Amino acid sequence: MSTPATVLPGMSEDKSADESRSLMDGVQSSTGDFIEYDDGFVVHSTSIPSRLDKLPFSSWHLRMVMALGVTWILDGMEVSLLSIASGVLQEAGTLNLSEVQIGFSGSAYLTGAVIGAIVFGYLADRFGRKKLFLLTLIIYVISVTLTTLSWNFPSFLIFRFMTGLGVGGEYTAIFAAIDEMIPAPVRGFVDLMIDGSWWIGSCAAAVLSLYFLNPEFVSVDSGWRFLFAIGALAALPAIFSRNFIPESPRWLLTHGYIHEAEETVRNIEEAVIKEMSSEQKRVYNEAKQSHSVSRVLIARAQMNQSAIYHRDMLSHRRVARTYAGTLGYIDVVKILLRTYPTRFLLASTLMMAQAFFYNGIFYTYGLILKRFYGLGEDKVGLMIIPFAIGNFLGPVVFGRFFDTVGRRKMIVSTYAGSAVLLATTSILFQFDCLSVATQTLAWSLVFFVASSGASSAHLTVSEIFPVEIRAQSMAVFFTIGLGIGGIVAPSFFSFLVSLEARIYVCIGYYIGAFFMLVAAFVAFHYAVDAEGKTLEDVAAPLSFASDDHMKLRVQLPQTSHRSV
């Protein structure tokens, strides 16, 4: 047994374990209770997760979502700009790139995104969300600015890679932060809306290209540079607006920053309560009476780091991990495969299916319209606009149902529905039953449904794994999905289009529809019913203590402080 605990007023050292625990039930400090654990750890009882989830959605949450979610709009602009401006970049008056070099530039961006997600995902779990979502946005702004100054292919390639680093890092840090601070009843809708905002950026790129890529208005070599510069300028306000966003209280809690977590939640509560009506305050005060309590294992010798206890589901023995920050990707993958095998299968299948489905069609969108419908290159941007609008409206219409009807039903419905719609559209395309307008309309309808399904894959990955490895888990599945969708699908579909026969293109579409049906089948069996639940109920943090961890003595130790 470790050193005797500090004795609370009214408690003698020879109290039994039950008496000590009973006395502790009535003693609350400003940051919760601490009960000593017999191997050098203490158990901290807290209502922080419950308090965060029972707050009503407010303008404070909206400002946070806008400050963090802007990245998805910018990413939509980035990807679409390269696709739309590819023809201009091949002209002698610009960078004079070849088709192969255009392809390499896209691959460099995606490669950077994968590496960024992996590197910054680890750092976000190690050092916190806030530091990373500020750093990654700064990297993005610098890289896009440098892109506008590119003078040849190597420089353009390097700057596109750097831009991808920032965007990939943003993905892991942002979704982790948002999910950990958004109230549970609206988490699904908010995540889907953020993901769907990608298409606002895509639509903006298409509209802006009509002016900046028109040589009658802007010189050939300046237009594309102005387009990328707009992306950098649009990101600048977000750098300043993100300063008001605090560190995730859940991250602080599981890393031992107890006082800071309590102070952050209290500040959020005060900001939200100021906006409440009298009736809302009454309802919230009633809800506060039923806050659930969670217990976190914390190293008594080093209170600013959370020791993790992970239960190995294969051998049913407790495995002590050192500190939260030392969990690397090998540890994370082991935890995912051993403790969450069906969730690993679910996340992998959803991410791969939607990535193949989306990227295969979107990256060959212009090629199809030009090759099989004879559409001029200057008109491709116009056709992207209705496609982007359909993609954005999907989460707007279906998003709330993920919180009311439920995750499982909506994931299955959107994945299966988009598969059926794509197969139907493919048959019409195969037998030449469509025009440019009706083909665009059909694709817009397909992705009106598919966009919610694709967004739900990101939602699923961001909420079904423990907080200590949330960002790294997202990086793992982002890499899996992008490896299939970002590398295999575009090349595969481009090859099919080059064969200049509709039947070959349709084979690719049918494969994509099949993958979506497989994902729907997996989701039907293994999807997690996370609607309305706290993240801790969906996936208990590795540092949360179960009943058999509660031991004999009671202690209120001093915690270290950390500036937030």
Structure, described:
- The protein is globular.
- Helix 8 packs antiparallel against helix 17 (377-398) and helix 19 (407-430) packs antiparallel against helix 22 (502-526).
- The chain is mainly alpha-helical.
- Strands 1-2-3 form a 3-stranded antiparallel β-sheet, covered by helices on one side.
- The chain is built from 23 helices and 5 strands.
- Helices cover 68% and strands 4% of the residues.
- Mean pLDDT is 80; it is low at 1-39, 298-325 and 545-564.
**C-alpha Rg, in Å?**
26 Å
Share of residues in helices: 55-70%
Main sheet overview = 3 strands, antiparallel
Low-confidence stretches: 1-39, 298-325, 545-564
Fraction of residues in β-strands: under 5%
User: Could you tell me how far the N terminus lies from the C terminus, measured between alpha carbons in angstroms?
Assistant: 35 Å
Mean pLDDT: 80
Shape: globular
* Strand-pairing-aware structural class: mainly alpha
How many strands? 5
Q: Helical stretch count?
A: 23
Q: Quaternary arrangement of the chains shown? A: single chain
The main sheet orders its strands as: 1-2-3
The run of helices and strands is HEEHHHHHHHHHHHHEEEHHHHHHHHHH
Describe the structure concisely.
With 564 residues, the chain is mainly α. Helix content is 68%, strand content 4%. A hairpin with a 3-residue loop joins strand 1 and strand 2.
